[in-house]
Structure prediction request, 123 residues.
Amino acid sequence: MLNNKEWRNNMALTFDYTTVANIKTFDDAMHKDVSKFAWIMSAIRMNEVNANNVDEIVFRLKFAEKCNTNFLTGSLSVGSLKAYIRSLIGYKTNVRTETRNAFMRSIMKTVESEVQGMEGFDA
Prediction:
């Protein structure tokens, strides 16, 4: 039996990008890449891309990158990243959206674990 600290969510990750602009021009490679974006949304704990949250998505991705937890391949400038995220407006997942503070705490716990795991620490 699981206690509250051991609760696990076993729900499958789902996504929908049928309302993303220019979807009719996507080739197979673009469909494959866009379908993988659900994992990034899961990592940053946000459930959709809309005109009102582009800056928040970019912030979370850049924050994670600065903490050496980059969810993207390589590094994009803020402007390029905003343009890419704007191109995905309409993308939705079943990820539970968390507050910025909760997201930042989870990244900091990862950083803390990495530091504590460094050679020479007994903490």
About this structure: The first helix runs from residue 28 to 44.
